């Protein structure tokens, strides 16, 4: 029993000794771990211990890396600034400048009209522009002397017609008979006059002959008027009187209402539109031979909505001029014409609620050509031609204006391209000598814009005024310049000018 108890006591002692040993060992280890931060003095950190030196070098390397990263970030930021600056320019070579057809100039300053664009068409003046030439007598067309499009001149012959009108032939026959009887009576008076003087013949015989001659003269006058009323021209009647022959062929000339105007100040303007006959064709009196156009003066028929009537009324009251835009004009007289408003129609179209108004349009010959002795003229304005009219609405004083092609509108922003001139201190170190010109966008505020012009709102912008009045501006192709600037900014081409780092 005692041996067993001792054994149990020894076992307990051994366990207790092991526990104490474990606790002591943990305390020692904890002391060793905590000793560098709690036991050593600050100067030990700068000791000659190689391990401490290695830790210091590592710390210094980390600090250097941080400084280098900071410098590289500054370099990247500077590159971004250069890139942003590059995006605000577009560089053009001489070849690109020529391909664009770029026009450079200064901003214009002055008065400008705000206008309202309305459609219009060229129409003929009723009763004046569209005329007709009819057959004066019944007959057969022997010859056509004119061609469609040929311009008429004074005393020109249009057609030759062989007269088959029986009434005209009969009237001419009676006229010739009257002339013959007059001639016989005059001869008889000449023969009897000496006999009457000598008393051999009674004076009553001579008096009867004189009375007969008066009757024949009256009959002659009546027949001449009848021939003229039947369509025989005065020249043909005079020919019958002089030659004592029937007029069998008739020369058709421009009617008197045309010929009288051709002999006035407006000697030109009449031309043959359409031919209705051909040689050998039989025509009756009054049949249409051809149509003649008068294009020296025409009408412009404009169309506006009923709500715009107050604009038209104000134009009439203040005698403002309406501007005619003719973009197809290729002559030196210019494309715009200023004309007064003639009249406003008194009717409003029920379907479209539009009102028409008229402007008298002076026309002009742009080209003459003579072929086989015939004159052909080409007119600037033609009936049926579509044009635009600009109605004056409001006038602005002392404003900056540019062509519409000079402005780019991108969303809410608008800007123009101004020639960029480098200062000496800003001159790039490695410039591309192929670049002819650099342009930069300058933001503007629009006061008014239409299809041809832009008015810039000034608002006492001193910086903008100095920029626009001292530098040249691209007057056209601003949209293409904008696309080129975006391509150069994205690296899609073009020339970049920046410093090498």
From TrEMBL:
<dbReference type="InterPro" id="IPR051909">
    <property type="entry name" value="MFP_Cation_Efflux"/>
</dbReference>
<feature type="region of interest" description="Disordered">
    <location>
        <begin position="43"/>
        <end position="71"/>
    </location>
</feature>
<feature type="compositionally biased region" description="Basic and acidic residues">
    <location>
        <begin position="58"/>
        <end position="71"/>
    </location>
</feature>
<keyword id="KW-0813">Transport</keyword>
<protein>
    <submittedName>
        <fullName>HlyD family secretion protein</fullName>
    </submittedName>
</protein>
């Amino acid at each position: 029993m005692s041996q067993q108890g001792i054994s149990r006591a020894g076992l307990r002692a051994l366990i207790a000794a092991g526990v104490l040993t474990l606790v002591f060992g943990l305390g020692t280890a904890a002391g060793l771990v905590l000793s560098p931060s709690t036991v050593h003095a600050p100067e030990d950190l700068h000791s000659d211990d190689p391990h401490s030196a290695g830790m210091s070098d590592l710390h210094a390397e980390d600090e250097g890396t941080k400084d280098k990263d900071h410098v590289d970030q500054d370099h990247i930021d500077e590159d971004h600034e250069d890139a942003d600056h590059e995006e605000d320019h577009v560089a053009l070579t001489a070849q690109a400048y020529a391909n664009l057809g770029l026009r450079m100039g200064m901003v214009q300053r002055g008065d400008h009209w705000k206008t309202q664009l309305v459609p219009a068409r060229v129409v003929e003046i009723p009763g004046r522009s569209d005329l007709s030439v009819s057959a004066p007598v019944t007959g057969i067309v022997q010859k056509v002397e004119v061609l469609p499009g040929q311009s008429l001149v004074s005393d020109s012959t249009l057609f030759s017609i062989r007269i088959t009108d029986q009434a005209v032939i009969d009237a001419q026959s009676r006229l010739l008979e009257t002339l013959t009887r007059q001639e016989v009576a005059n001869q008889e008076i000449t023969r009897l006059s000496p006999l009457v003087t000598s008393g051999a013949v009674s004076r009553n015989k001579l008096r009867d002959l004189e009375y007969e001659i008066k009757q024949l003269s009256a009959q002659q006058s009546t027949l001449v008027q009848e021939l003229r009323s039947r369509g025989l021209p005065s020249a043909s009647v005079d020919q019958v009187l002089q030659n004592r022959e029937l007029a069998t062929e008739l020369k058709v000339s421009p009617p008197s209402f045309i010929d009288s105007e051709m002999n006035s100040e407006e000697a030109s303007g009449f031309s043959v539109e359409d031919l209705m006959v051909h040689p050998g064709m039989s025509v009756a009196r009054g049949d249409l031979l051809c149509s003649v156009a008068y294009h020296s003066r025409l009408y412009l028929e404009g169309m506006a909505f009923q709500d715009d009537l107050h604009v038209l009324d104000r134009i009439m009251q203040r005698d403002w001029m309406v501007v005619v835009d003719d973009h197809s004009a290729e002559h030196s007289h210019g494309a715009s014409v200023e004309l007064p408003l003639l009249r406003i129609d008194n009717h409003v179209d029920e379907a479209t609620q539009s009102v028409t108004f008229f402007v008298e349009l002076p026309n002009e010959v742009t080209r003459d050509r003579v072929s086989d002795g015939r004159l052909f003229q080409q007119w600037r304005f033609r009936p049926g031609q579509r044009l635009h009219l600009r109605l004056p609405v409001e006038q602005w004083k002392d404003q900056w204006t540019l062509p519409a092609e000079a402005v780019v509108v991108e969303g809410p922003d608008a800007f123009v391209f101004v020639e960029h001139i480098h200062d000496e201190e800003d001159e790039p170190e490695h410039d591309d000598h192929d670049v002819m010109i650099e342009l930069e966008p300058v933001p503007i505020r629009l006061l008014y814009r239409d299809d041809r012009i832009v008015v810039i709102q000034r608002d006492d912008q001193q910086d903008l005024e100095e920029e626009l009045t001292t530098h040249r501006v691209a007057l056209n192709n601003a949209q293409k310049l904008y696309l080129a600037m975006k391509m150069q900014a994205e690296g899609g081409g073009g020339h970049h000018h920046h410093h090498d780092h």
